[in-house]
Fold this sequence. Notes:
- The chain is mainly β.
- The chain has no helices and five strands.
- Helices cover 0% and strands 53% of the residues.
- The protein has one domain (2-72).
- The chain has strands at residues 2-12, 15-24, 27-34, 46-51, 69-72.
- Keywords: Hydrolase.
- GO terms for molecular function: hydrolase activity.
- It comes from Enterococcus faecalis (Streptococcus faecalis).
- Pfam families: Hydrolase_like.
- This is HAD family hydrolase.
Amino acid sequence: xxxxxxxxxxxxxxxxxxxxxxxxxxxxxxxxxxxxxxxxxxxxxxxxxxxxxxxxxxxxxxxxxxxxxxxxx
Length: 73
């Protein structure tokens, strides 16, 4: 199960991507989620990129992402 909340929206290429923070399947961290469902229906989202918040500094999460732009925090 996933208990997450959106923290910001970033621009990756031409797409807007939601960034979430919380726990998913027992792992705490931040990441990008993808899926075709309601924003509150986290169970059905596929975890595309989820890293432990204690494992990597937040600012380094998108270090290698081209054309990144933080739109809101």
